[in-house]
UniProtKB/TrEMBL annotation:
InterPro entries: Acyl_CoA_acyltransferase, Bact_Acetyltransf, GNAT_dom. PANTHER family: AMINOALKYLPHOSPHONATE N-ACETYLTRANSFERASE-RELATED-RELATED. This is GNAT family N-acetyltransferase. Keywords: Acyltransferase, Transferase.
Length: 181
């Protein structure tokens, strides 16, 4: 069993190393594309890293917050993560966006489901009503995992991206955490 803990902003450099290693797998067999990034641009860019780091420190009762959890292998290296963040649009404080990643060598071991359970429980306890995500439609393993964890597809944009000569669709999925008012 992997250790899953909140991402401490002081450990952000190790997280950046993990995410860059993970993104190097984007577009490669066997999993294919899991981010809408060209192979040549599959990096955790410094400006994105800075925004992510700053969002971790924002309070939940305002815009631009983010919370993240990481899983570590027995050697202590980060091997997976899940993050929740505020929607950028106003009047969406009852919802958040979910992102996650699991290194190729750690997949199909239940780690993704454990991360999703943790994030869902945290969101529910925090009082959020919905989790939303977007996933590349061709990422069948991720779509299946999200469905098993209760997410429902709410729309798809076929041919949303054309990356490295591939046409990729984008599927939006949501999970209700409680009854609507």
């Amino acid at each position: 069993m992997k250790s899953i803990t909140p991402l401490d902003p002081r450990d952000f450099d190790a997280f950046s190393v993990y995410l860059n290693l993970h993104l190097q797998e984007n577009g490669l067999p066997p999993s294919g594309y899991f981010q809408p990034l060209a192979r040549a641009h599959s990096v955790f860019a410094p400006e994105r890293a800075d925004a992510f780091r700053q969002a971790l420190q924002r309070p939940l009762d305002g815009p631009g917050w983010r919370r993240a959890w990481v899983a570590r292998d027995p050697a202590g290296r980060i091997c997976a993560h899940v993050d929740l963040r505020a929607h950028p649009e106003p009047h969406t404080e009852h919802r958040c966006l979910l992102g996650m990643g699991v290194r190729q060598d750690q997949r199909r071991r239940g780690l993704g489901a454990s991360l999703l359970t943790l994030a869902t429980d945290w969101a529910r306890q925090t009082g959020l009503a919905w989790l939303d995500l977007q996933v590349l439609s061709q990422n069948a393993a991720a779509v299946a995992l999200y469905r098993r964890c209760g997410f429902a597809a709410v729309g798809e944009r076929p041919d949303m991206f054309r990356i490295d000569g591939h046409s990729l669709g984008y599927t939006s999925m949501s999970l209700s955490l409680k009854e609507c008012p």
